[in-house]
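haha ok so turns out i had the wrong file open the whole time. this is the CORRECT one, sorry everyone. sequence first:
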Amino acid sequence: MRTPVDTDISLANQTILCLATQAWDAHWTPVQQVMLRLAPHNRVIYFEPFHPPLAWLKKSNSLLKAQRNLPQLREVHPNLLVYRPGYPYLPWNMKQPLAATLNGPIYQAEIRALLRRVGAQNPWLWVFFAQSLSVLNLPFQHVIYDCADEFAAFFPDPAEKRFVEQIDAVLCRRAELVFVGSEPLYATKAPFNPHTYVVNHAADIAHFMRATEPDTVIPEALQAVPRPRIGFVGMVDDVRFDTQLIVQLAENPHYHIVIVGGLLGDTARAFPQQPNIHLFGMQPVSALPAFIKGLDVCLMPYRLNEATRNIYPLKLHEYMATGKPVVTTAIPAVEPFRDLMYVADSADAFHQYVAQALLERDPQRVTQRQQCAQQHTWEAHVAQKARLIRQHLLPA
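then structure:
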């Protein structure tokens, strides 16, 4: 899944500094998917988020601890460098204005030093989020803001929310192009910048279609779980994920609920310890098709709130690439796919659709879902962005 794929080359021979939202080896997001597909024809520098000294001691930063001995600058694929910041940043960057003010020059200095180190003069800035607006004081050939989510909706703390909203607004105004992942996001970002375009998220279709292949082996631990297996594959957080829907579903003792993914915050406490709820934790991306192959129904149990109103879930097309029946709550992103998914407008409907999906036996439905998914590859996603860049930023 992490092998670069040749795609539209209307964007080529550029140096791109990507300000990412997480470490390269954290869970897979549009940031890595896009940069991986730009790298075959461009030089990409993936700049991870900064952390204060000793941040690796925090339990929530276990990845930092596990990777303490990695080189600060490493090539993870041809033309794709990953850099982990190491300057002495102050903590509470998003909560304390003084910390943010003092971190700004440090952030700018480290980025400047990195660009000098790799010999990058006037690169492109492709920013998914910036921890300080000081980066915009550096010379960039072009600035692109790739807004994958309404980030402020994920921060209940008022100070953090204000920080994110300010960064987001300035990036929207200063960028020459703004890409958004959904139509609702377009409605909120377009007033800041007329050059805002919707490019929906996609999936590694070929990878997830492996769930249909005979030689894909269901993991032994999952095979030990009785059927029917009703599962969710992805990160579980307390903003988007409706734990109560899952708990209610598990009240049926014949159902076995499977959760494959990391549990963020206090979400682990929300799942009761009972024999028909099975938590498999984080799994490598390479293993996910095998897990989905072992499910009878896939779930998208999202709350209906500001965060989910703007998301375009990666698992939407990942699930459909497997052909499996999908039961989802009625977030806006799934509305165009009501004929291919079971879209529940209430908790009762969600439970009823699970029972209905378990009875599905029509092979044509599998084919229809996979055909739909094949129109939403990451290659097509990046090619669409490249065409917009060619149209607006590159001379004819």
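The chain has a mean pLDDT of 94.
again sry for the mixup
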